[in-house]
């Protein structure tokens, strides 16, 4: 029973660490903004910025200042 409990705690803490990864959160937000804005949003550029800055800047699709560098005119 003790080993089972330790395994459960280990699995749960691994899930929390994965979800809290700032680069992962940043990239998921880029994907969400790409879905919202379609061809007007440069998703690849956003994801590249996530990796370059190690998730320190996280885009918020509802905050124009955080996504302005990734918006483009669709022609």
From TrEMBL:
Signal as UniProt keyword: yes
Keyword annotations of the record: Signal
InterPro entries attached to this UniProt entry: Eclosion (IPR006825)
Sample GO molecular function, one term: ecdysis-triggering hormone activity
Any Gene Ontology biological process: neuropeptide signaling pathway
Signal peptide (residue range): 1-20
Name of the molecule in the record: Eclosion hormone
Organism this protein belongs to: Ignelater luminosus (Cucubano)
């Amino acid at each position: 029973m003790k080993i089972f409990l330790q395994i459960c705690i280990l699995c749960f803490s691994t899930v929390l660490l994965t979800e809290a990864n700032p680069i992962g959160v940043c990239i998921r937000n880029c994907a969400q903004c790409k879905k919202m804005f379609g061809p007007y949003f440069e998703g690849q550029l956003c994801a590249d910025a996530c990796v370059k800055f190690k998730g320190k800047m996280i885009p918020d699709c509802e905050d124009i200042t955080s996504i302005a560098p990734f918006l483009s005119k669709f022609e």
